[in-house]
Amino acid sequence: MKTSQDPVRDYLSAVEREASALPADRRQELVADLAEHIEVARAERPDAVIGEILAELGDPRAIAATALAESGTGPAASPAWGGSGAPARRGKVHPLVPVLLLALAQPVGMVFPDEGGSLIGGLVRITGAVLLCTSVHWTARRKIIGVLLAVVLPGVAMGVWNLSDGAPEGSGPALVANLAASALMAGTAAWLWRVRRA
Amino acid sequence: MEPGDSTKQARAAAQLRKGVLEYCVLALMRDRPRYGVELLQALEESGALATSQGTVYPLLSRLRRDDLVTTTWQESASGPPRRYYALTDSGRAALDEFTRVWPGFRDAVDTFLATPHPSTGDLA
């Protein structure tokens, strides 16, 4: 175990260690907030022992647990989207991943012929939706809007199209419909990218 | 008044605090922006809402992410600049909503806790 002469640094690295399940930016923000607090508290109470200020801040583990719960990645967070999947990894996927998957599902699907194309496109889209829903980068409302626009709406439109028409792949109208769906998903993906939070 | 008399008492207080803490923090910013240490001191002085101070920072971070508060840096006459937390419009709306529902909530709990308990016949 390393020991240093600097109790503040020891304290902050303990918080950092305990909060290792937090996304890196969240963890850095937490440590910066606490460092700031310590600096201000020290300036306002020059007579206080540093140990006292740190004791008032509390147990690094309790702080990390609260941070995990607040960020929606902890075990205390709503289980609705996460299921039983490894909680520590939830939300740590880069926000570009779900956005790109949603944006590219349709074009990727169009590359492959017939059933295979729909299947692959569908899988890519579902993966994108799952990653979107488990990410910490969007609010629940934006996730719902994203899933509705990029997955549900195109899915329903395709279903209606296939049922009512049965036009063969590659025919003019089908191509137009595919392009329209692609544009909708790309637009949704662009919007998601814009409204994501750090 | 001691929050730690027994584990059960501590748990009840912690549960309650968890529910209302963020609204009390928002309420502290109602009249003017406050900086972190200042917010924590006010909570500390309240007694019942005093909590391990460090756990308030993740809460403040979420309030900021949810756009209920904004922060600005201000120079201080003594020591480092302070980061001031201020209510946004949605923060103020959330506080107003809590202020609206709280009395009914409080009265309902008081009624349940009051002795003698209302008899079941009253519900019929």
UniProtKB/TrEMBL annotation, chain A:
Keywords in alphabetical order: Membrane, Transmembrane, Transmembrane helix
Transmembrane segments annotated in the record for this chain: 145-163, 175-193
Record Pfam families: HAAS
The keyword Transmembrane helix is annotated on this UniProt entry: yes
Name assigned to this protein: Uncharacterized protein
Lineage, broadest ranks: Bacteria, Bacillati, Actinomycetota, Actinomycetes, Kitasatosporales
From TrEMBL, chain B:
Annotated Transcription regulator PadR N-terminal domain residues: 25-96
SUPFAM superfamilies (UniProt xref): Winged helix' DNA-binding domain (SSF46785)
Pfam families xref list: PadR (PF03551)
InterPro entries attached to this UniProt entry: Metal_resp_DNA-bind_regulator (IPR052509), Tscrpt_reg_PadR_N (IPR005149), WH-like_DNA-bd_sf (IPR036388), WH_DNA-bd_sf (IPR036390)
Protein name: PadR family transcriptional regulator
Provenance organism: Streptomyces microflavus (Streptomyces lipmanii)
